[in-house]
Structures are given as structure tokens and as C-alpha cells.
Amino acid sequence: MTSLQIYRKRILPPECLLLKDDVVVEQSEDYVITKWNTLNPKTTFTHGSSCYFLKEGIKVSKFYRADNSLLYWYCDIVDYDYDPENGKLTVTDLLADVILYPDGRVKVVDLDELAEAMEHSLITAEQMCLCLRRLNNLLTLIDRDKFDRLQAHLNLRNL
Description:
Helix content: 10-25%
Largest sheet: 9 strands, mixed
């Protein structure tokens, strides 16, 4: 199997970056699990792990402080472009994100960026609809107390 290279593509600011230091822990046709250290030093968190749910269009990450305590779960609404021949997965961040704190609080963030991207034609109407549907699906899962199904992929591997 070709070693998987993961690229993070952002709309705001526009960039496409190879996540060269991310370690692929496991992959299947449904998901890819990675562990990583922050690209740029942060004071609130230093490392984490992520599960890219390829069919759902969601990336679920655990963000850890330097002392290995959980800061929060961070869910990106994304789209994927997979090139199996070259072992390349490009993950496009569709801007809307959901943060789940250990105390149970849920926060939806970056909707202003989503609106800005639409206003400036940086995303298509199709991407906007895709983002909103995936965001709705994730929030419904959380509301119905089923987020543990997504958490399990990282928790079972102790990541």
C-alpha cells in the first residue's frame, strides 16, 4: 500500500499544505486516523489525533494540552479528494466547525467565515449546501447523544 499523504486545503486563507509530520495510524475505505503535533506552537494545545470520516465529510479531532489532558473535541466540516494511485488525500476545510468541551458544552464556530467565502465567491453554492447538510448531520448526531460513535475511533486506540 502506498504511504498516504494528507493535504489540508483552506479556503480562508487560501492555502494547500502537506501535513508531512502527521502520522497515519490506521486507514480504511471509511476513515483515516492520524496523530500529530501542532504545526505552529500554541499555548492552549500542543498535539492531538484526528479521524477523517471519508463518507460523512467530517474530521473529528482530539486536542490535547502539553500535560496530555483533553482540551476539547474539534469537528471540521470538510470535503475530500482522494487519489489512490498517488496515495494523496486532499482535505478541503468547508469552514464551519463544532467544538465539544469536556463539560458538555457545544459551540458552532466560523459561520462568519462561511458567509464571507460565499459573499466573495470563494466557495460554490454546491459546497455551501454540502457544508450546511454535513453540519446539520453532525449537530443532529450530537443532539441525539450519538457523538460517541465518532469518538470511539480515537478512544479505542487510546489516541
